[in-house]
Structures are given as C-alpha cells and as structure tokens.
Amino acid sequence: MRVLVVEDEQLLADAVATGLRREAMAVDVVYDGAAALERIGVNDYDVVVLDRDLPFVHGDDVCRKIVELGMPTRVLMLTASGDVSDRVEGLELGADDYLPKPFAFTELTARVRALGRRTTVPLPPVLERAGIKLDPNRREVFREGREVQLAPKEFAVLEVLMRSEGAVVSAEQLLEKAWDENTDPFTNVVRVTVMTLRRKLGEPPVIVTVPGSGYRI
Predict the structure, then answer these.
(1) Which one of 56, 76, 85, 185 has the fewest CB atoms closer than 10 angstroms to its CB?
(2) What 3 state SS string does 147-167 have?
(3) Could you tell me which residues carry 4-aspartylphosphate (predicted)?
(4) Residue range 172-206, pLDDT digits in tens
(5) Residue 122 in domain
C-alpha cells in the first residue's frame, strides 16, 4: 500500500511516516498543501493522510482536488478540532474518514488499512493463496502452518503479489506500491527483495518469474 502523509508539523509527520513504514507501507511525506498537490499529480496513492490546516494550500482544497480528479485515492483527514461540525464538514468535502488530534497510532494504522482495502476489489482480511496465509493487520505470514518472519519490504511485496490474485505484477508496479519516491528506480532492489522472499517462503517456490513481465503467485 502506498500512502502520502501531508502534515505541517514535521515531527508528527515524520513520526507517522516512520510508524507506517514499519507496518510495511510505502510512505511519502510533504509538509504543505502545495507540495501535496504536486505529489498527487505524479504518484498514485492508495491513501492520503491529510491534515486539514495546511500552509499555502488548505487541506480542504487538497481534498476537493482529489475528488474533482475522480481518483480512487482515499482521504483520511486529520484536525486539531474534534467538534462534530468540523468532522461533518470534512466528510462533506469528500474525505473518507476523519480523525481528530491527538490520536492513537494504532487507530490511525487501522483506519489507513481499512481505507486501503476500499481502493481495490474487496478482499478478505486474511489473504490466502498457494498455501500462504497473510494477515495485513497482524503482519503475520504462514506457509502450510509454518510462520515466516519477513522484513517490512518483503512483507509489502508479498502483500502486493497476494492481492493481485494470480495476475502478473511488474517490477515497476512493485516499486510503486512497496517503496517510496526516494528509492532509485534503476537499482535492483525489487529483484533482490523477491529473491530473499522466495528463500524465506521455502520450497517449492511459489513466486513465479514471468520473463519480461514481472512476478506472480
């Protein structure tokens, strides 16, 4: 899942991004509304965590732009105000969910995951394919009953492949969904991660390389 965090309190923004990355999400961070519009115009995001009170371009206007473009991106709006009227106003702008500050990080993570599931074809909470069970919420992976310990990027790649339900996923698509914009697209990071993931999942291999196209399970 790829997430954009838009928050002008830089310490909070960076802390949220770090926490979401530990949950195997690819996260970009910007600190104002103008930068948010620029990123949205370049990258495809599953979820935007959007502070309402932003400099340069207000969060309301960023939300309106996402709605106007008809993007499948889901918006979780943040605000320091917990008034019901503010929550209603934010939802009427087109936000999909609303979370007042201060918030528990576990709740933020759960809401981001719930919104991320709504950007794609509905799938069960626990993904199962080829003898593998993947639970995104608990960040657990089992193969034939054996727990498999994965690093965050390995987990993210496996989740993308599982969600594709047998379709081929290109290296570019994996890079877009599992890594943030600071990753050099010309590195072999996808190939190396897939190799490590194959090894950890064990025999027989379940990740198939489709020459010239990508990978599938």
Answers:
(1) 85
(2) ECCCCHHHHHHHHHHHHCCCC
(3) 51
(4) 889 888 887 777 666 789 999 999 999 999 999 99
(5) no
